[in-house]
Amino acid sequence: MTTDRSLEIIAFNIESCITIQRLGANRIELCDNPGEGGTTPSYGLIHAAREKVSIELYPIIRPRGGDFFYNEYEFEIMKSDIRICKNAGCDGVVIGILNAEGSIDKKRSGQLVELAYPMGVTFHRAFDRVCDGSKALEDVIDIGCERILTSGFFPSAIEGADNIAALLKQAGERIIIMPGSGVRATNIAELKTRTGANEFHSSARKLVPGNMNFKNPAMTEKLMYVSVDETEVQQLLQALQ
User: Fold this and answer.
1) Burial degree of 134 (CB within 10 A; 0-12, 13-18, 19+)
2) 38 within a domain of the structure (yes/no)
3) Is residue 1 part of a domain?
4) How far is CA 109 from CA 63, 101, 124, 126, 133, in A?
5) Count of domains forming the chain
6) pLDDT tens per residue, range 11-69
7) Which of 130, 162, 201, 216 could form a disulfide with 8 if both were Cys (CB 3.0 to 4.6 A apart)?
8) The pTM is what?
9) pLDDT, tens only, 210-221
10) Residue 129: inside a domain, yes or no?
């Protein structure tokens, strides 16, 4: 397991992918639907991103917003999306399936890990919804994921920093624990100190106004979209040096 510090940034569009690579981040988590916390990006976006960037590309495999307890139809969709990512040459995928009582669905999550091979697999923040974090950590290790994205069972990583540190201690060298949620340039140094983590995840997002010159005055929606904040990414990277 590497001890080099690295930074993963979320991208919701192709321009963000290109910007993230240009600024020097290490990995992209590719998503759609920021308002729902991120869902599986389209086939077209996955292929375009792989064509335009050479850094690690990890699309999220999440068929809908909401919770992480999926039915059989949704599970089949997840498997199909993993095949698409593998065929597109992605480096990995981001998954997470829970049982109704709040434990890791080891059977189906394990099947996704096997299907994804030789791609890497990150277990996403579904992990923060489990009822027993210590057991969940062992379960995710058992199914073969390479890392866990977590905010330490709190809404933000800075709130859950002590729990993240405990997860790192329990995990040892067996899996990477990557803090995420609310990670910004203003707190990443504190997170490094308090958790001991080497990998970090940030949305580094900003809202961008649309580019149309004509705007119907009867329509009140602002039609803004989520993109990456270049300055924020630069400052995050500087804080990790």
Assistant:
1) exposed
2) yes
3) no
4) 14, 16, 11, 12, 16
5) 1
6) 999 999 999 999 999 999 999 999 999 999 999 999 999 999 999 999 999 999 999 99
7) 201
8) 0.95
9) 888 898 989 988
10) yes
